[in-house]
TrEMBL record:
InterPro entries: DNA_bind_recomb_sf, DNA_bind_recombinase_dom, Resolv_N, Resolvase-like_N_sf, SSR_resolvase, Zn_ribbon_recom_dom. The keyword DNA-binding applies. It comes from Streptomyces johnsoniae. PANTHER family: DNA-INVERTASE FROM LAMBDOID PROPHAGE, SERINE RECOMBINASE PINE-RELATED. Keywords: DNA recombination, DNA-binding. Gene3D superfamilies: Putative Large Serine Recombinase, Chain B, Domain 2 (3.90.1750.20), Resolvase, N-terminal catalytic domain (3.40.50.1390). The keyword DNA-binding applies. This is Recombinase family protein. Residues 202-323 form the Recombinase domain.
Amino acid sequence: MRRSRNNRRTAEHKQQYTVAAEWSAADLALLEELKRAEDLLPANAPRALLSVRLSILTEDTTSPVRQELDLRFLARERGYRVVGVASDLNVSATKVPPWKRKQLGDWLNNRAPEFDILLFWKLDRFVRRLSDLSTMIDWCLKYQKNLVSKHDSIDLTTTIGKIIVTLVGGMAEIEAANTSTRVTSLWDYAKTQADWLVGKPAYGYETFEDEDGRVRLRIDRTAHRALHWCRRAALRGISARRMTIVLKRAGLVGDGLTTSTLLRRLRNPALMGYRVEEDRKAGIRRSKLLLGQDGKPIRVADPVFTEEEFNDLQAALDRRSKNQPTRTPDGATSFLGVLVCVDCGTNMTVHKTTTKGKEYSYLRCRQCPSGGRGAPNPEAIYQRLIDDVLTVLGDEPVQTREYVKGDEARKQLKRLESSISYYMRELEPGGRFQKTRFTREQAEATLDKLIAELEQIDPASAEDRWVKVANGKTFRQHWEEGGMQAMAEDLLRVGIKCEVARTKIPRMRAPKIHMKLSIPKDVRDRLLIKEDDFADRF
């Protein structure tokens, strides 16, 4: 029986990490010893959450196993009970702040009542930006948590601890900034070179080492075959969607290729053998040529297409392109992710077409032939969805999640339990209240009163917890104030879907539209609005 439990614990810890992390027999034995020590701690021992993070696991880095064991040793020394391990591996502390990491972020955003102290191995294992550290200090002060590091003098319960944590965080940010500067400089230098120094080559090319050991680019034969077939197909007027299907069937590309990805590949000027970079101002994902000091494009490989062939391909693609809605910050399609096709399950998106000089907008899916005949008049579809949602959920009260501390209730419980123990002890034979009948009766009456007060206190109120608080509004009022976008965000957050079905009507271009609202059973719990403590952080 003992062996089975140990095996389960071993499996649990191996599954805990997102990259390979080897637990040796000695490590597992030590882990069991530390857990047995935890079992001896009092019930009210401070609860510790261990944060384990690693960017890349190499021989020179401290393994996640070593980090966890070191932190468990620290917890034992200080009398903390370990309630969980948040391991986020292959995660950069510079790019991903604590509240956005998969495991630690869940603890910070949803499980704050379950721990009192956040332990981490070293400050740079936790954060590398001073702004992130400042945010975490503010969060800990708000929720009465403490930050403790194995290798840094960090303790938020003291003034000097707050000063030290800020200074050390500043040094970590400087180091991260220096690293970022070096990487940026490398990329800037690489962009000006004909050699391929760093990065993934564009589709159509692969890297190889020449006789001098220098990394170069050469044409990928399979991709060359696929690209030239696509060019000939485009000149014949074949759509990109049809090209994607044929390429998949021929095995020239992977099954995950989409029409959008294929079009980006075909429009990439890198296919002429030039160096390119992402064009961030185009509003769509495109690449643009990089020019050298002589003002000419930088050639890094033999061309897949000559300039004439590439220009002919672009002209052919332009002839079949449609004037789709301009991208906006909120997207061209309202309720994106909520409206889905009943047949293929993909999202319905707004598209435009022009017939006899007149422009039409309609909703279509991605998988069904011809968009499943589409759904004309998107605004009418939106209004029908709004009416259905308001009918079902409009009168539901808006509730927010608030964090309630159990300090006062804990103090009250402790006072009552201490007083009850005192009266019970003194009412025993030989106690001070047994000297006269009057003192005994008075003490018994007081004891009954204290016990009654203790019974009236809900044990849950002594715990830090999340509670639901109504703000006096209904969701109908909330959505009327926030508009269509507010409703779309809530429906997407809750997981509500609306299936759109289309029935063809003889001799009519527009099909008949049917809509079915799918609402999760726990929709009321999901509608709970949770304040995001990190919403305004960058």
